[in-house]
Design a protein that fits this description.
globular, 2-enoyl-CoA Hydratase, Chain A, domain 1, single chain, two-stranded antiparallel sheet, ligase, zinc-finger, alpha/beta, seven-stranded mixed β-sheet, Acetyl-coenzyme A carboxylase carboxyl transferase subunit beta, zinc, fatty acid biosynthesis
Length: 301
C-alpha cells in the first residue's frame, strides 16, 4: 500500500512540475503597460473600469454607485441642453491683495491644470427648453474655495437672473472660504446672500444643488439658501468637517454623518438625486415653475 501511494505522489509531483514549466515562461509581451487614461479605478470600491464607459455613465461607478467628481465643464455638458452655455465674466481673475505666500503661483497652477480662470463658471443656457442662469463650482480649482472672484461672479449671476427673471441654479463644490484672501473671502458670504434676498423678493426660483464635498463658507451662505435644495448621493456637506467636530465635542459621530442621505433624513435638504436623473428632475421643476409663473402673469394681466 505504501509503495502505491509513493508512486502516486511521484506522479502528482511530476505533473505539477511539468505544468509549472509551461505556465511561467517569462515574456516581454506580457509586461505591456496600459496607456494612461484608458482605465479608471474607483476611489470608493477599487473597481477598475474603462474610462470611456465611466464617462458614458456620468462618471458614476457601475459597481458601487460612487459619484466621482466632475469638472465644471463636464457638469455643464451633462446639465444644459446640448451642453451649450453663454458664459459670463469669463476673463475675471483673482489678484493677490494680501501678498499671501505663493498664492499667485497656486492660482497660475490651477489655471493651467483646469483651463479655468477661477473656481466657478457662470452663464446662461436652457434646460428642457427653459432658460436658466447657472453657476457651477469646480473643486479642482484650489479646492473650490470661495474667493473674491467666485463671490463676485456668483453675485453677478444672481443679479442677472433677477433682471431677466430667469430661474437660478447653482452647483456647489467647495472646501470653504479662501484663506489666501482672508476677510475679502468672508465678505462674499454676505454679498451672495444679500443678492439672493433681493432675488427672492422678486419671486425668483433658486435651485441649489450640493455635490461632494461642500463645506465652510459656501454651506454657510448660498448653498443652503435655495428654495429647493438637492444633493447627489453620498455628497458630504456641512460647516466644519467631521474630524474637526469629533475633536471639538470629543464624541463619536453617527454613521453616515454629513452625507446627503443623513442630511435628507434630518431635514437639511429636499431630495437626493442620482446624477443620471438630475437633468430630468431639473426639467420637471422648471416646468412646474414656468406653469406657475404663466398662470400668475395671466391672472395679473
Amino acid at each position: 500500500m505504501t509503495t502505491v501511494w509513493r508512486g502516486v505522489d511521484v506522479a502528482i509531483k511530476d505533473f505539477f512540475q511539468k505544468k509549472r514549466k509551461y505556465a511561467t515562461i517569462p515574456s516581454e509581451q506580457s509586461k505591456r503597460e496600459i496607456p494612461e487614461g484608458i482605465m479608471s479605478k474607483c476611489s470608493e470600491c477599487g473597481t477598475i473600469q474603462y474610462s470611456k464607459e465611466l464617462g458614458k455613465n456620468f462618471k458614476v461607478c457601475a459597481s458601487c454607485g460612487y459619484h466621482n467628481r466632475l469638472s465644471a465643464m463636464e457638469r455643464i455638458e451633462y446639465t444644459l441642453d446640448e451642453g451649450r452655455l453663454f458664459e459670463y465674466d469669463r476673463d475675471m481673475v483673482s489678484e493677490d491683495p494680501l501678498e499671501f505666500p505663493d498664492y499667485t503661483k497656486r492660482l497660475a497652477k490651477s489655471m493651467d491644470s483646469t483651463g479655468l480662470r477661477d473656481a466657478v463658471v457662470t452663464g446662461e443656457g436652457t434646460i428642457g427648453g427653459c432658460p436658466v442662469v447657472i453657476a457651477v463650482m469646480s473643486f479642482d480649482f484650489l479646492g473650490g474655495t470661495l474667493g473674491s472672484v467666485v463671490g463676485e461672479k456668483i453675485t453677478r449671476a444672481i443679479e442677472t437672473a433677477t433682471q431677466k427673471q430667469y430661474p437660478l441654479i447653482i452647483f456647489s463644490a467647495s472646501g470653504g472660504a479662501r484663506t489666501h484672501e482672508s476677510i475679502l473671502s468672508l465678505m462674499q458670504m454676505a454679498k451672495t446672500s444679500g443678492a439672493l434676498a433681493k432675488f427672492a423678493e422678486r419671486g425668483g426660483l433658486f435651485i441649489s444643488i450640493i455635490t461632494n464635498p461642500t463645506y465652510g463658507g459656501v454651506t454657510a451662505s448660498f448653498a443652503m439658501l435655495g428654495d429647493i435644495i438637492l444633493a447627489e448621493p453620498g455628497a458630504r456637506f456641512g460647516f466644519a468637517g467631521p474630524i474637526v467636530i469629533e475633536e471639538t465635542i470629543r464624541q463619536k459621530l453617527p454613521e453616515g454623518f454629513q452625507t446627503a442621505e443623513f442630511n435628507e433624513k434630518h431635514g437639511q435638504l429636499d431630495k437626493v438625486v442620482h446624477r443620471k436623473d438630475m437633468r430630468t428632475t431639473l426639467t420637471k421643476l422648471l416646468e412646474l415653475h414656468t406653469v406657475k409663473a404663466t398662470k400668475e402673469a395671466s391672472a395679473n394681466g
